Amino acid sequence: MDIKLRIEEALEEAVSAGETPSAPAGLSAAIRYAVFPAGHRIRPRIALGVARACGDDRPGLSAAAAASIELLHCASLVHDDLPAFDDASTRRGKPSVHRAFGEPLAVLTGDALIVMAFESLARQAADSPDRLATLIATLGRAVGTPSGICAGQAWECESNVDLSAYQRAKTGALFAGAAAAGAGAAGHNDPAWLEFGVGLGEAYQVADDICDLTADPEQIGKPTGQDQAHARPNAAQTLGIDGAKKWMAELVQRTIDSIPDCPGRDGLRSMVLAEGGKILPKGLVRAA
């Protein structure tokens, strides 16, 4: 089955499980609004790409792991857009959740998505208890503290920011979690997959920094200029656009070189190169 279809079906199953007549209608609507329609789905694509490279012997489990990673990502976007943080008006080309449903429901939506990620993974892993503990730990590490996405958001509240720790937590942690979850779902627990994911996250962060300075908000579906507005570190501001593109290309190559030995290494390499070309503004892809 196509990777995109596997992701969307797994997400639909996870979200639908919470849409019962006894659930608050507004919360159910806000959750669905936050998850659909699709964004780039880069993180779950990485999870399934790694699982496939490792043999993907339990496709139901790998699809659930990929969906859980995306649910956690969606939760982070809902919370990141809140007035307490970025106060972003749009996300994925439509009003952000707090603009569409109000701030209280947006907070609860993010919370519910986090719980849904772990619940849906546990439900799908009923036939794979031997791999569940590792997957739960992988997801927890990716979202919690000291180095998950919660810690990454918290670094923005500090007066003295450790740039490396900030970038690894804010972006790299969920990419690392995606790679490790994909491998873990396929029965491969080599720690090198974490570093592979971190490298992807660093490359994506540089691309995101470039987009924040150069992209059309309509094109990327969210406000730009946020780093400057909130005095956050930005690689494109520090290195210049050309320097940032060069650095991104180096990170992508370094990440490709770090792919652990696995049956589908060549296919994963091609996937990483293809994904790298999708995340820059169109006018900059060739130059990168």
SSE blueprint:
Layout: H1 3-16, H2 25-35, H3 42-53, H4 59-80, E1 90-91, E2 94-95, H5 97-101, H6 103-124, H7 129-143, H8 149-155, H9 163-185, H10 192-214, H11 217-220, H12 226-229, H13 235-257, H14 265-276, H15 282-285
Helix pairs in contact: 1-4, 2-6, 3-4, 3-9, 3-14, 4-6, 4-9, 7-9, 8-9, 9-10, 10-13
If you had to describe this structure to a student in words, what would you say it looks like?
By secondary structure, this protein is mainly alpha-helical. It has one domain: Farnesyl Diphosphate Synthase (Orthogonal Bundle), CATH 1.10.600.10. Helix content is 70%, strand content 1%. The chain is built from 15 helices and 2 strands. Strands 1-2 form a two-stranded antiparallel sheet. Strand 1 (90-91) and strand 2 (94-95) form a beta hairpin. Helix 7 runs antiparallel to helix 9. It is globular and about 50 Å long.
CATH class descriptor: Mainly Alpha
Largest sheet: 2 strands, antiparallel
Strand % is under 5%
C-alpha-based Rg, rounded: 18 Å
State the oligomer. Answer: single chain
The averaged pLDDT comes out at 90
What would the principal axes of the Cα set say about the shape? globular
Order of H and E elements = HHHHEEHHHHHHHHHHH
E-strand count: 2
Stretches where pLDDT is under 50 for at least 5 consecutive residues are none
| Tally of individual helices | 15
Percent of residues in helices comes to 55-70%
End-to-end gap: 31 Å
Strand order of the largest sheet: 1-2
Looking at CATH, the homologous superfamily is Farnesyl Diphosphate Synthase
